[in-house]
Write a structure and sequence with these properties.
Length: about 525
């Protein structure tokens, strides 16, 4: 093993950067839908050995000495995000050649930007790069900080965080309730990088013993949490029908077929309940399921009122419009979720707050408009962000916190707004990404949010993956990709665990502090000059 590690340590120049890129791409296999945990145990030790072998000009300043570390981390990150996010390019090809010019920006541009976070991580770790176990702890702290920053810098994009690699199944998701994603990201890197000690003479036994304890605790806590999981004493039952229309995006905004698409939704919603299922109290349609503002089509509201049985409600994604704020100004459009009762009246409407940059709106829009660019992704219009999220009042006094599309990927955003709700509703249109890893990765985000907050998630997608997830992350029922249909499910709804958010955050930071102390204890005082 020392000989193998030595080969990586001695790499330099473009060879070292190419290996870093390949190691990062390999690490993508730890994420959904592959869930190949062992890939992390190869890619991160390679990263450690590459960092071990870095060298810089003897008289270079601090930044000059850290530049090689940044380059290795950046190429590792570029490989990771390019291999994990390539499917974003499908969104710009929905309407063929119209947006093909934006393909390089989507496929390569986003990984280029995301790679800076991992470059920052390796640069920070190399700044405090002790011997043996200390350097493993240093790398874990640095990646934990980088993943935390990825949640909010540049509006945030915490997709495929490293911590998800150690949570491929509900049993292994429960630890996130203790230390949150902040702690899980750091601990995942700590365990993945531990084989880097196989080529070291110091701290090998201590490192592997500590990793074994962490893995055992992770699994044991999962067993305990799953066995003790039970219905809350104040739990209420809710019968729900989740509709997945599987609409081709080439037809989504076509005026000639939108009445047919609406009719398909009604047909799926009014068919008899599945065998053994009760009449649904709530019918759930996906994001922008109604392809026009309801205020412009009052007959659609009337048809929905006719469709719904007494006491039923419909929760659906739609485009909401507001009149121009001033003469000569265009209307304002919002990506919204609305609750419609059996009288065909909109009871509540909640607008999407966290919009997708370049997908739902253009940052620096005035500048791009002067260049003749109004959108980078095919879609109906540019949206405005909502101001406030409110729970949807469902039958039985149940409040549901609605999140539209990728809002579900932000742990703190979901925890704040789902804290007092007994249910999370996520409507999305993952058809943008085709039959690729993207929809599976998005569904995994919904599972983790369910576990973090201890509340069920009901998820309706235009096409896959629609489903119901309980508060422990178990999939109760789901519809696969490219399937048109509906599922009927009875779900138990109780009080959530949103009040634990602050405690999870504090314990997550405590993990980083402890790992930092471990780095200091195992050799920080013996740290050589960064070279």
């Amino acid at each position: 093993m020392e000989r193998l590690a030595g080969r990586f340590v001695l790499l330099w120049g473009w060879r070292a950067l190419f290996v870093a890129f390949a190691a990062g791409a390999l690490a993508t296999l730890t994420q959904a839908p592959f869930d190949f945990f062992a890939a992390g145990l190869v890619s991160f030790p390679i990263l450690v050995w590459l960092l071990d072998g870095l060298a810089a000009a003897p008289r270079a300043g601090l930044l000059g000495r850290l530049r090689p570390a940044f380059a290795v981390g950046w190429w590792f990150g570029f490989g990771y995000f390019l291999a994990g996010l390539w499917w974003i390019g499908n969104a710009v090809l929905v309407e063929g050649d119209d947006y093909a010019w934006a393909l390089p920006f989507a496929v390569v541009g986003i990984p280029l930007l995301m790679a800076f976070f991992y470059g920052f991580a390796t640069m920070l770790a190399r700044l405090f790069w002790p011997d043996g176990l200390g350097r493993i702890a240093s790398l874990a702290v640095a990646f934990g900080l980088a993943e935390w920053l990825r949640g909010f810098v540049l509006t945030g994009f915490p997709w495929n965080p490293i911590g998800f690699a150690v949570m491929p199944a509900p049993l292994l998701m429960q630890s996130v309730t203790v230390v949150g994603m902040l702690g899980m990201n750091a601990l995942a890197v700590f365990v993945f990088a531990m084989p880097g000690l196989l080529a070291a003479r110091r701290h090998r036994a201590a490192g592997f013993a500590l990793a074994a304890v962490l893995i055992a605790a992770h699994v044991a806590f999962g067993f305990w949490a799953m066995r003790t999981a039970g219905g809350a004493t104040d739990a209420k039952s809710l019968d729900v029908r989740i509709v997945q229309p599987n609409v081709d995006l080439s037809e989504k905004w076509d005026d000639a077929v939108r009445d047919r698409l609406f009719g398909d939704l009604v047909a799926l919603s009014t068919r008899p309940p599945a065998a053994g299922a009760s009449q649904p109290q709530v019918i759930l349609w996906p994001e922008t399921a109604i392809p026009y503002p309801l205020t412009e089509r009052p007959q659609a509201l009337a048809a929905i009122g006719t469709m719904l049985e007494p006491g039923q409600v419909l929760v659906t994604g739609t485009v909401r419009s507001e009149p121009p704020s001033a003469p000569g100004q265009p209307p304002r459009y919002y990506n919204s979720v609305v609750l419609i009762d059996d009288g065909g009246e909109i009871v509540e409407a909640v607008d999407k707050i966290h919009l997708v940059p370049f997908g739902e709106y253009l940052p620096f829009g005035d500048l791009f408009e002067r260049l003749g660019v109004t959108q980078l992704v095919a879609g109906p219009m540019n949206f405005f962000a909502g101001a406030q999220r409110r729970p949807l009042p469902l039958p039985g006094g149940i409040g549901a916190a609605p999140f539209i599309c990728y809002e579900i990927i932000f742990p703190d955003l979901v925890a704040v707004d789902a804290g007092s709700a007994g249910l999370i509703v996520n409507v999305t249109n993952d058809a943008w990404f085709g039959d690729s890893p993207g929809p599976y990765q998005h569904f995994r985000q919904a599972q983790i949010r369910a576990v973090e907050n201890g509340v069920p998630v009901l998820r309706a997608a235009n096409t896959g993956i629609s489903g119901a997830i309980d508060g422990r992350g178990r999939v109760l029922d789901a519809l696969a990709m490219k399937v048109r249909g509906a599922i009927d499910i009875r779900i138990d709804v109780g009080a959530g665990q949103g009040a634990e958010r602050a405690a999870r955050t504090m314990r997550g930071w405590a993990v980083l502090v402890l790992l930092g102390a471990l780095a200091a204890t195992f050799g920080l005082r013996r740290r050589p000059d960064v070279n």
